[in-house]
DNA sequence: CGATAGATCGGCT
DNA sequence: GCCGATCTATCGC
């Protein structure tokens, strides 16, 4: 008889991503994600779509950079921010995507600390740029499938309390409530105003 | 702790 | 030429 080891939650399917970004962004709070074995629990996301002035796909204009975001759901859209930080998105339906903003580190922690050059667990993956640095994600992963190694995305187990707020670091459409977080998590890039749902 | 400046460069107008 | 879906260090209170 095997011992009663709890099974890992199942890997998500392509259908998980084939929805609008707001729904996927919510579904991802509490879900697991890793790259090459390093990763954790997703605690913060933001959604973007073609109707959103802050989105790279705004107005449905195809450019060299955003072509992955217009591609099939279930792939990574990775771009360079401010000339130095990589940002990871999960491509969803119809030119929409979810920016992965923060993780609660659970696996490969020492490797992530080494990549970041920091011991501090709370800020190891707190922010899109830090998260990519910790996991070792760069533009080389743009267009890669999220349904196959070295990526792994797992459904969340059980219920979570999700809070909602306005997005961070944008100048357009700054009032849209498209930032989602795990209520009370110490691993957020920034705290939410007290407006849990 | 909040505000701010500087780093640094690809994408787009 | 301008402007970022950021981060860090540093300054002021």
Structure description:
It is a single chain. By secondary structure, the chain is an alpha+beta fold. The chain has one domain: Roll (3-methyladenine DNA Glycosylase, Chain A). Helix content is 14%, strand content 26%. The chain contains 4 helices and 8 strands. Strands 1, 2, 3, 4, 5, 6, 7 and 8 form an 8-stranded antiparallel beta sheet that branches. Helix 3 (109-116) packs across helix 4 (128-135). The protein binds a DNA duplex (13 and 13 nucleotides) through residues 46, 48, 54-56, 63-65, 79-85, 87, 89, 99, 101, 127-130, 167-171, 189.
From the structure above, extract its key features.
alpha+beta; 4 helices; 197 residues; globular; 3-methyladenine DNA Glycosylase, Chain A; 8-stranded antiparallel sheet; 8 strands; DNA-binding
Can you summarize the main beta sheet?
Answer: 8 strands, antiparallel
Report mean pLDDT, rounded to a whole number: 95
Described by the principal axes of the CA atoms, the overall outline is globular
CATH superfamily: Methylpurine-DNA glycosylase (MPG)
| Gap from first CA to last CA | 43 Å
Count up the domains.
Answer: 1
Structural class: alpha+beta
| CATH level-1 class | Alpha Beta
Rg, rounded, reads 16 Å
Number of strands: 8
CATH-level-2 architecture: Roll
Could you give the order of the helices and strands?
HHEEEEEHHEEE
Assess the beta-strand content as a share of residues: 25-35%
* Poorly predicted parts: none
């Amino acid at each position: 008889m095997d011992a009663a080891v709890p099974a890992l939650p199942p890997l998500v399917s392509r259908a998980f991503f084939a929805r609008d970004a707001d729904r996927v962004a919510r579904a991802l709070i509490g879900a697991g994600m890793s790259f090459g074995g390093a990763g954790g629990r997703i605690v913060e996301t933001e959604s973007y779509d073609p109707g959103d002035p802050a989105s790279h796909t705004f107005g449905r204009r195809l450019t060299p950079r955003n072509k992955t975001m217009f591609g099939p759901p279930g792939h990574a859209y990775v771009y360079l921010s401010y000339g130095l930080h990589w940002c990871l998105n999960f491509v969803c339906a119809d030119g929409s995507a979810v920016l992965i903003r923060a993780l609660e580190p659970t696996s490969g922690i020492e490797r992530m600390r080494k990549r970041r050059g920091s011991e501090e667990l709370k800020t190891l993956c707190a922010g899109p740029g830090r998260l990519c640095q910790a996991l070792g994600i760069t533009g080389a992963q743009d267009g890669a499938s999220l349904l196959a190694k070295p990526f792994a995305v797992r459904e969340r187990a059980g219920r979570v309390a999700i809070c909602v707020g306005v997005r961070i670091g944008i100048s357009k459409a700054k009032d849209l409530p498209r930032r989602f977080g795990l209520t009370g998590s110490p691993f957020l890039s920034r705290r939410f105003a007290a407006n849990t749902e």
